[in-house]
Design goal:
Blueprint (H helix, E strand, L loop, with lengths): L8 H14 L7 H9 L4 H21 L7 H23 L3 H20 L5 H19 L2 H5 L3 H13 L3 H14 L4 E2 L2 E2 H5 L3 H32 L7 H9 L2
Antiparallel strand pairs: 1-2
Helix pairs in contact: 1-3, 2-11, 3-11, 3-12, 4-5, 8-11, 11-12
Length: 248
């Protein structure tokens, strides 16, 4: 870590989590992560710092105003669904089964719509559309098209593929990783020179995904067990661990 000036809040939380708590002397490595998570005493702190970082990310996401505030509209739809409930009971009492089923179906449909309805703002629609186009483009992209992208576009595309649970993107990432792990020399040039992209970034991104997933599983299981187990004992140990899992 060279410079901490001008960081956003979620970036500050991430630096505190990785470089201050897990790493040392402004340095962080996956070996540090493995060593840190092997110590069960660190699991609660790991979960707390991760939760603080995720909370900061969510706060920044909310500030971006990607979704319109439809709380009043959703409340109205919820009330309409509840209005149908007494009618459904009246129908079943009077053996009007068809009307009962219709009223129940409408009430459930309205309630599901109310809790799931989210309307994006213009900015949100624009960003969503861009990512959807990128996802479609990546899954259909040939190697020659990949070479024509800028380094920034390639890195964003690869990280996006790592971050979403999309089979086509996972397969594309696997093929790209194999491509960069192929022959080091091509016509006397390094692979990174041929493709205009540093293959170490792919290796780091893939390793990061694997290492943090493993660390998450290790700390989450132990943290959950210690939190639940401490509930029946003295109250001193529960408060410190409660903030970690509560923000997920």
């Amino acid at each position: 870590m060279v410079n901490r000036n001008g960081l956003l809040e979620h970036e500050e939380k991430l630096v505190e989590w990785l470089f201050d708590q897990i790493g040392a002397k402004n340095e962080f490595s996956f070996e540090d992560l493995t060593t840190y998570t092997k110590n069960k005493k660190n699991h609660t702190k790991y979960q707390q710092l991760q939760a603080a970082w995720k909370k900061a990310v969510r706060a920044e996401w909310k500030e971006a105003n990607l979704y319109e505030d439809k709380s009043k509209y959703r409340l109205l739809i919820t009330c309409l669904s509840l209005v149908l409930v007494p009618f459904a009971f009246l129908f079943v009492i009077n053996d009007l089964l068809a009307f009962f089923l219709a009223a129940s179906a409408m009430a459930v449909a309205l309630f599901i719509f109310a809790i799931s309805h989210k309307q994006k703002t213009w900015q949100g629609e624009r960003i969503y559309s861009e990512w959807q186009r990128l996802k479609k483009r990546i899954s259909m992209m040939a190697d020659i098209d990949w070479q024509q992208l800028s380094e920034d576009e390639r890195m964003r595309a690869f990280i996006y593929g790592l971050g979403v649970n999309e089979k086509s993107l996972k397969k594309k990432n696997e093929s790209l990783t194999k491509m960069f792990k192929g022959p080091v020399h091509a016509a006397g040039l390094q692979t990174s020179t041929v493709y205009g992209f540093d293959p170490s970034l792919i290796i780091v991104a893939t390793a990061a995904t694997s290492n943090f997933h493993s660390a998450e599983q290790t700390t989450a299981v132990d943290h959950s067990s210690s939190t639940n187990g401490g509930g029946s004992g003295s109250g001193s140990g529960v408060g410190g661990g409660g903030g970690g899992s509560g923000a997920f």
